[in-house]
Amino acid sequence: MALSAALFYFLASIAAASAVGVVVTRNLVRSAVGLLFTLLSIAVLYFLLGAEFLGAVQLMVYVGGTMVLVIFGIMMTNTGPTGGERVKRIEWILGIGLAAGLFIALVAASLNLVKPAASAEALPGIQPIGLSFLGIAEPGQRSYLLPFEIVSVHLLVVLVAAAYLARGKRKAVKP
Amino acid sequence: MNDPGLTGYLILAAFLFACGILCLATKSNAIGLLMGVELILNAANLNLVAAARYVPALKLDGQMFALMVIVLAAAEAAVALAIFLNFYNNRGTVDVDDAKDLKG
Predict the structure, then answer these.
(1) Are residues A13 and A65 in the same domain?
(2) Domain segments of chain B: what residues?
(3) Which residues on B lie below 8 Å from A61 (Cβ)?
(4) CA of A10 to nearest chain B CA: how many angstroms apart?
(5) CB-count exposure of residue B16 (10 Å: 0-12, 13-18, 19+)
(6) Per residue in B1-25, pLDDT tens?
(7) What does the pLDDT look like over A40-84, one tens digit per residue?
(8) DSSP state of B92
(9) Half-sphere exposure (Cβ direction) of B24: Cα atoms closer than 13 Å
(10) Phi, psi of B95 (to 5 degrees)
(11) Shared domain check, A94 and A60
């Protein structure tokens, strides 16, 4: 137990430090690297919690997919090393006030929660997840067939729309 | 060193959420805003997975919700970047303060 607790504190400090780095730096590429380290440490936290499938999905989709998209976006819309940021002081003060208020409220709420008894059972692995996505649920468990279909059609529609929106403008070629 | 338990994960997620909110409030570059949204979604996901681990009734449901959030976040990032590229083609910048065509 001591090893997993030490690992949690180590990974949590990496995630928190790089999340702060995302916010404070004015260089967008540095923000992206900070976000990359936050996502990586969250993926390792999933492995630590025992959700191996989710950790692998986080590595593949977030670290391998979304971050590449973000970095391509930075490269294609670059407007100088600072990204053309002109942040007013009042925005910082209001933002820090809002974020600190939300953080304190959330921490107070989570400290007041009734602590559930830690269960020693492992989380369900890939097989129960896949079976309940296919609607072959064991009795007493929900079937996730309908959300799965909705999400897959949604993903298809969204990607077609994104490809349509981001296409380059072509001049009509006249022979 | 004591075990963090559910509370430790919830506090870490609250901190990531606050960083995401601060990112949304202080950045004026559209891609910086997108990174703030990613931080917020990851904080929510961490809550869901920690609940799946520590609350016995949510073992499967927490992981399912987290998977749905990951898929929807990927879709959202793709559409957001497509819109930003379109805006950049028209304006030569992705500063959200310049996006005021609809202002009366």
Answers:
(1) yes
(2) 8-93
(3) 70-71, 74
(4) 12
(5) buried
(6) 577 788 899 999 999 999 999 999 9
(7) 999 999 999 989 999 999 999 999 999 999 999 998 887 665 545
(8) S
(9) 14
(10) -75, 125
(11) yes
| Residue pair B84/A73 in contact by the 8 Å Cβ criterion | yes
For residue B15, give the nearest of A114, A4, A102 by alpha carbon. A102
Query: Which A positions 42-61 lie with beta carbon below 8 A of chain B?
Result: 42, 45-46, 49-51, 53-54, 57-58, 61
| ipTM associated with this complex | 0.91
Among residues A121, A122, A157, which one has the least CA distance to residue B76?
A157
Assigned domain for A145 exists: yes
- Give the number of other CB atoms < 10 A from CB of residue A101: 12
One domain, residues A24 and A86: yes
Residue pair B59/B30 in contact by the 8 Å Cβ criterion: no
Contacts of A3 in chain B (CB under 8 A): none
CATH number of domain containing A17: 1.20.120.1200
Query: In Å, what is the CA distance from A55 to each residue of A18, A100, A119?
Result: 19, 29, 20
What is chain B's length? 104
Find out if CATH 1.10.287.3510 is the number for domain B8-93: yes
* Counted domains in chain A: 2
What domain range includes position A133?
124-168
Give dist(CA B85, CA B68) in Å, integer.
Answer: 26
Q: What is the pTM of this model?
A: 0.89
Q: Dihedral angle at the C-alpha atoms of B28, B33, B34, B40, nearest 10 degrees?
A: 170
CB pairs under 8 A between A and B: 246
**Min Cα–Cα distance to chain B from A33, Å:** 11
Same domain, A153 and A79: no
Which H helix or E strand runs over A124? none
| One domain, residues A79 and A134 | no
